[in-house]
Amino acid sequence: MAGIVGYGAFIPRHRIRSEEIARQWGKDAAAIKRGLVLEEKSVPGIDEDTITISVEAARDAVERAGIDPIKIGAVYIGSESHPYAVKPSGTVVVDALGIGPEVHVADFEFACKAGTEAMFVALGLVESGRVEYALAIGADTSQGAPNDALEFSASAGGAAYIFGKRDLLVDVLETYSYTSDTPDFWRREGRFYPRHGGRFTGEPAYFRHVTSATRGILKKTGMNPEDFKYAVFHMPNGKFPQQAAKRLGFTKEQMETGLVVVKMGNTYSGSSPTGLAAILDVADPGDKILLTSFGSGAGSDSFVLQATELLPQRRTTGRKVWSMLDTPLRYVTYGEYAKLREKIILND
Amino acid sequence: MPSPGYWRGIPSRLRLEAVRCSSCENVVYPSRRICPHCHGTKWEPAELSRTGEVVTSTVVHVAPDDFAMEAPYVLALIETPEGARLMLQVTDCELNEIGPGTAVNLEFRRIRAEGNSGILCYGFKAVPAG
Amino acid sequence: MREVAIVGVGMTHFGELWNDSLRGMFAEAASGAMADAGVDHLDGLYVGNMAAGQFVGQEHLGPLMASQIGMAGIPATRVESACASGGAALRAAYIEVASGMSDLVMAAGVEKMNDGADVTQVLATAADQELEAYHGATFPALYALIARAHMATYGTTEEDLAWVSVKNHHHGAMNPKAQFRREVTVEQVLGSSKVAEPLRLLHCSPVSDGAAAVLLCPLDQAARYTKRPVKILGTGLATASLSLADRKSPAILDAVKDSAVHAYKMAGVGPGDIQVAEVHDCFAIAEICCIEALGLVEQGKGGAAARDGLTALGGKIPVNTSGGLKSKGHPVGATGIAQAIEIVEQLRGLSGDRQVQGAEIGLAQNMGGSGASSVVHIFGRV
Ligand SMILES: [Zn+2]
């Protein structure tokens, strides 16, 4: 059986509070915090992007896996903010970590599910025996247009997973995908900010795919919500995953460890993978974990996972998600945020 | 920095690859042909730890155009446990908390960009440890 | 080797010379030097220049400048050692005359910095591009790193740095060629804007345009050109690692010390014999480090020298009577020649209000990069 042999996450150290964004646009902060269940979000430094976040997250993953990076035969990065429109992010990661050059590399994009998409493919390649180890990363420095609801959530961070067949930290018991053409959120080529269909992003998009994928994998495995210690659903805001959980019969207790969105925001392709990393930071051997991502456009990938005996001893190195979230460097003003996110038009 | 020069620097900039002199054992970063300490020419590969200590530092307020958006930023001479010294920016810090002896970790960052349409150049910056 | 004298000097004003071009400034300084010596020909020309290719897009200055003064055809070469280009040109001219190769050789320096280039970026090309400039190092930043190291090692203070600027502005206020002919106070220096901490704007030399030229000939021919030749007693050029990271201590400028040792030995004098000195104060900390490395004060005592009046006019060893790079201006390629001119004029007794009475032996020290090149010349009254 194949599974996760190493994992890591990285979250930039700057934050902006929901109040500060609301203040900028004359919105009611209390109503937004109540409606979206978002307190603050991470903001990338001017020197951070999907590539740097990927390298830092993957470095912890390699260290926890305790493997020679040269044995990694495939590297996939899922993101909707690859720094180059043409030229892979993955090649930088490969050279920075000493992987390759005998390695298959690709950048993935599927809105917010590109990270689990990378995990799905990496797992499949390892299971098939095509490669010994495969590295999958979900990372983003998410874009949200100024004065759009997305601006309260679009944040930066990511997580990396190495799949292999020996010395597993987490067994992958099952996977399931559910996909349909649903234009709820998109960004056309050459455009700076994504657009979305407002409330159309809810029922026909997020909820339909997340609940269908989750029900699908439960049926496929014959498991029930109460069989899981933890669950994580894609987190476009704090409200949607909790509503989805409730509909599916998952409890607050199962959800709270992975519900990083309240403090981190929505790291798009990095969202549910980072939630999973937060769970792996504390899970006990034998604990079962459900992961369901969502990517607009639209689709969901579900994974049923189980922590092994090896997990606690391997996670003694590396950065923990909640400790990164609990120790921000500083809170920026909207003006600083606009500068860091390069929203100000400058002279050449 | 145009692509060829950036590309040649990938081993040292992206992986902190250094060399250890086979005769005097000094670690030299980045690699070079002749040892500056003993004139030796035999080398073994070495990799720098991603940790170090500030030797001396400054806060740059007036930056070249390419770094204008980063100013003010800390620039420091960092010594790694192997004895190699690197000049790096210190990022994610309070500007005035950095001085001689400050312990740092090195993190992967975007160092510079060639305008709005040129290549992106990566490497390491220091971040205060702990 | 023949003994060599300087027999003619000429220079432009230093400053923001919007009306003057690179070639025009050179011609003004060069023809001034030729007129001073009463000559209408040259056997050779060395043009010190750091970065005309980047500042104004012009390389190949040797033939260009020779033709600007009607000397097309002579051997003419550009010499580049960053901000030490002028001093290096002087040394090249000295060697050519001393060797017997040529008799009448001009050493000139010129820089046009105010022509629209990103000056901070251009100057940074004198630092290690791969190891320093890549990470956003600027020249003020490199000297700020040196300053912080000096402060940590020797207890030098920001106020000590400010006193260097105060002293040099005091001198420069008396120099009709200076870019800034005005005094500044310690409070003004410490209240000026931050450039690279601890260095503030008034710790830094300005961006300047200007040119300077001197004429060299064998000492035994000097009487043909002037009644007041000044002899070059010694020359020294030394280098250190371009990158600060490769030096034993960032607080110590080994190249300056090594270049001085050579020049002192050749001249047969020591630091105690120097009565007036021009020292490369591109930043206040540089003057402090340089007077230590030159042996004019004890290692670690440079910080107090300006504050205590030791290096002011009337002090034990007046340093930068011209106003230094700080007040006179720093058109980088021209600086080394302008420093030599200040010492020549002091030894000729022509420095007016700035005259160091009875000066017979003087020294000029010109530096490139963060101290990676240093050129020292020692001059004597004949
Ligand atoms: Zn050696």
* CATH classification class of chain B: Mainly Beta
* Euclidean distance between termini CA atoms of chain C: 18 Å
Radius of gyration of chain B: 16 Å
Broad CATH class of the largest domain in chain C: Alpha Beta
Strand content of chain B: 35-45%
Please summarize the sheet with the most strands of chain B: 5 strands, antiparallel
Low-confidence stretches of chain B: none
Count of separate DSSP helical elements of chain B: 2
User: Helix/strand-derived class of chain B?
Assistant: mainly beta
CATH-scheme architecture of chain B = Beta Barrel
Shape of chain B: globular
Strand percentage of chain C lies at 15-25%
Count of alpha and pi helical runs of chain C: 13
Average pLDDT number of chain C: 98
Q: Span between N and C termini of chain B?
A: 33 Å
Total strands of chain B: the figure is 8
Task: Trace the largest sheet of chain C across and list its strands.
Answer: 3-2-4-7-1-8-11-10-9
Mean pLDDT of chain B: 96
Bound molecules: zinc ion
Please specify the SSE layout and strand pairing.
The complex is a heterotrimer of chains A (348), B (130) and C (382).
Chain A: E1 3-10, E2 14-17, H1 18-25, H2 29-36, E3 40-43, H3 50-65, E4 72-78, H4 90-97, E5 104-108, H5 114-128, E6 133-141, E7 156-164, E8 170-182, E9 185-186, E10 195-196, H6 202-221, E11 230-233, H7 239-248, H8 252-256, H9 261-264, H10 271-280, E12 288-292, E13 297-307, H11 311-314, H12 321-326, E14 330-331, H13 334-340
Parallel strand pairs in A: 2-14, 4-5, 4-6, 11-12
Antiparallel strand pairs in A: 1-7, 1-8, 2-3, 6-7, 8-13, 9-10, 12-13
Helix pairs in contact in A: 1-2, 3-4, 6-7
Chain B: H1 3-8, H2 10-15, E1 17-21, E2 27-28, E3 43-47, E4 51-60, E5 73-79, E6 85-90, E7 103-113, E8 120-128
Antiparallel strand pairs in B: 1-2, 1-3, 4-5, 4-7, 5-6, 7-8
Chain C: E1 4-11, H1 22-37, E2 44-48, H2 52-55, H3 61-68, E3 76-79, H4 85-98, E4 105-112, H5 119-124, H6 139-154, H7 158-172, H8 186-191, E5 194-196, E6 199-200, E7 209-218, E8 230-239, H9 254-267, E9 276-278, H10 284-293, H11 302-307, H12 324-328, H13 332-348, E10 361-368, E11 373-381
Parallel strand pairs in C: 2-3, 2-4, 9-10
Antiparallel strand pairs in C: 1-7, 1-8, 4-7, 5-6, 8-11, 10-11
Helix pairs in contact in C: 4-13, 7-10
Bound molecules: zinc ion (ZN).
3D structure, described in words:
The complex is a heterotrimer of chains A (348), B (130) and C (382). With 348 residues, chain A is of the alpha/beta class. In chain A, 35% of the residues lie in helices and 24% in strands. Chain A has 2 domains: 3-169 and 312-340, Peroxisomal Thiolase, Chain A, domain 1; 171-310, Thiolase/Chalcone synthase (Peroxisomal Thiolase, Chain A, domain 1). Chain A has 13 helices and 14 strands. In chain A, strands 5-4-6-7-1-8-13-12-11 form a 9-stranded mixed sheet, sandwiched between helices. Chain B has one domain (4-128): OB fold (Dihydrolipoamide Acetyltransferase, E2P) (Beta Barrel), CATH 2.40.50.840. Chain B has helices at 3-8, 10-15, and strands spanning 17-21, 27-28, 43-47, 51-60, 73-79, 85-90, 103-113, 120-128. Chain B has a 5-stranded antiparallel sheet. In chain B, β1 and β2 (27-28) form a beta hairpin. The longest helix of chain B has 6 residues, at 3-8. Chain C has 2 domains: 4-117 and 207-230, Peroxisomal Thiolase, Chain A, domain 1 (3-Layer(aba) Sandwich), CATH 3.40.47; 119-204 and 232-381, Peroxisomal Thiolase, Chain A, domain 1 (3-Layer(aba) Sandwich), CATH 3.40.47.10. In chain C, the strands form 2 sheets. Chain C has a 9-stranded mixed sheet, sandwiched between helices. In chain C, strands 5-6 form a two-stranded antiparallel ribbon. In chain C, α4 (85-98) packs across α13 and α7 crosses α10. At the B-C interface, β4, β5, β6 and β8 of B face α5, α6 and β5 of C. Zinc ion binds next to loops of chain B.
